[in-house]
């Protein structure tokens, strides 16, 4: 039976600038790695027995989690984030299957080849879609699943897919600036240095081909890989957390509410944040995630 979900607001009205970073003695290390012969980059913090694996969304990279990794690691976890192929410092170009199933294969191979067993999965946007797919394929590998502004829960239709594909394909300076402004509630948080770095990385050798192929997948294949029904079928036994920015314009919060209702679950909404609440309000998000992990 489907029940009506309730938003569990953090009660905070502040943006990231009001939150001092949690002081820890832990540092993030960065190093190259590979999965199935495809190179990537890892950010890692902590040496806990349980691993928390973080995965970014389209056009981003592992660095988006720099405000979260050391804090969660300080609570006793080993925290890892990687660059997906076509993104950050991972392999770019035409020699990859740029689809959610293709990315799920890559993540599974990375976990296998790096000796990571069952772990806590934390994904945002398309990263949440990828980790949800992995969860549906191999539930025994998943200690818990945290979804943040997830795509791919329900089919969105051709018109919406075309709009997203057009944004993915636009890696001009202006397009990058618009995309960064769209994922935050307070656009003044996006600095010129951020825009410049994002533009340089997303125009590095092979990146344009990667985004072209990824855009084609969004146009033609995304809805066929919707994963919501698979997660709902596992809801009773799946430890999960659903988090959304209240002002998310990329994946509206009503999608999260509908999914939470189908999961017979609750949605944690973070006020005055948009598509990347873990970056805009890290203290609130980190506390939310650690409460969830500590309850398992």
TrEMBL record:
SUPFAM superfamilies linked? alpha/beta-Hydrolases
Q: Does the keyword Zinc apply?
A: no
- Single GO MF annotation: hydrolase activity
> Does the entry feature the keyword Hydrolase, yes or no?
yes
Taxonomy, superkingdom: Bacteria
| Residue stretches in coiled coil | none
In terms of InterPro entries, this protein maps to:
AB_hydrolase_1, AB_hydrolase_fold
Which keywords label this protein?
Answer: Hydrolase
Q: Where is the AB hydrolase-1 domain?
A: 51-282
Q: Which PANTHER family match?
A: ALPHA/BETA-HYDROLASES SUPERFAMILY PROTEIN, LIPASE-RELATED
Give the protein name, as stated in the record.
Answer: Alpha/beta fold hydrolase
């Amino acid at each position: 039976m489907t029940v009506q979900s309730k938003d569990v607001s953090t009660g905070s009205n502040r943006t990231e600038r009001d939150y001092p970073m949690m002081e820890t003695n832990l540092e993030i290390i960065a190093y190259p790695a590979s999965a199935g012969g495809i190179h990537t980059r890892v950010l890692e913090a902590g040496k806990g027995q349980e691993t928390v694996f973080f995965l970014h969304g389209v056009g981003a990279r592992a660095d988006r989690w720099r405000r979260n990794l050391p804090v969660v690691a300080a609570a006793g976890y080993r925290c890892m984030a990687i660059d997906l192929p076509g993104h950050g410092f991972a392999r770019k170009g035409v020699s990859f299957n740029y689809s959610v199933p293709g990315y799920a294969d890559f993540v599974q191979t990375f976990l296998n080849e790096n000796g990571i067993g069952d772990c806590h999965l934390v994904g945002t946007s398309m990263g949440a879609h990828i980790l949800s797919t992995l969860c549906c394929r191999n539930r025994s590998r998943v200690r818990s699943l945290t979804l943040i502004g997830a795509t791919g829960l329900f089919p969105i239709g051709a018109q919406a897919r075309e709009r997203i594909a057009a944004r993915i394909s636009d890696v001009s300076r202006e397009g990058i600036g618009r995309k960064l402004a769209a994922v935050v509630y307070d656009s003044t948080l996006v600095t010129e240095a951020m825009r410049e770095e994002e533009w340089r990385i997303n125009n590095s050798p092979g990146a344009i081909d990667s985004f072209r192929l990824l855009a084609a997948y969004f146009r033609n294949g995304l809805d066929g890989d919707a994963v919501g029904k698979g997660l709902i079928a596992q809801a009773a036994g799946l430890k999960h957390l659903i988090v959304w920015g209240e002002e998310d314009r990329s994946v509206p919060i009503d999608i999260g509410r509908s999914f939470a209702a189908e999961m017979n679950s609750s949605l944690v909404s973070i006020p005055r944040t948009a598509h990347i609440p873990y970056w805009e309000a890290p203290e609130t998000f980190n506390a939310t995630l650690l409460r969830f992990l500590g309850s398992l």
